[in-house]
Amino acid sequence: MWRSLVKTFTQLREGFIYKLGVGDISFWFDHWLEEGHLSNIVEHMNVLDANYKVKDLWTNGAWDFSKLAMYIPEAVRYHIMANPISS
């Protein structure tokens, strides 16, 4: 029984995504994009950017990619910008 519950929980967890707000959601490692974790989507991540939270890159109602040490490809930026931040 426990194995079934753990398996079900794991499958459910993989299907969930975060709703963006002003909390401490990791920009790189939490599943807040439909496509998955940014760390899995972007081929290389600069170690200087690893600790950024979503809230760190959301400034005055818009994404501020200039804070990042690395360049995020245009297609990935499009997916990021399609995710609204709720307050």
Task: Please outline the helices and strands.
Layout: H1 2-15, H2 38-41, H3 54-57, E1 58-59, E2 62-63, H4 74-81
Antiparallel strand pairs: 1-2
Write a structural description.
There is one protein chain. The protein is mainly alpha-helical and about 90 residues long. The chain has one domain. A hairpin with a 2-residue loop joins strand 1 and strand 2.
The neighbouring-strand order within the major sheet is 1-2
If helices are DSSP runs of H or I spanning 4 or more residues, what is the number of helices? 4
Oligomeric grouping of the chains: single chain
Order of helices and strands: HHHEEH
Q: Can you give the mean pLDDT?
A: 80
Strand content: under 5%
How helical, in percent, are the residues?
25-40%
Tally of structural domains: 1
Low-confidence stretches: none
Identify the overall geometry.
Answer: globular
Using only C-alpha atoms, the radius of gyration works out to 15 Å
Structural class comes to: mainly alpha
Number of strands: 2
Protein name: Reverse transcriptase zinc-binding domain-containing protein
List keywords for this structure.
mainly alpha, two-stranded antiparallel ribbon, 2 strands, globular, Reverse transcriptase zinc-binding domain-containing protein
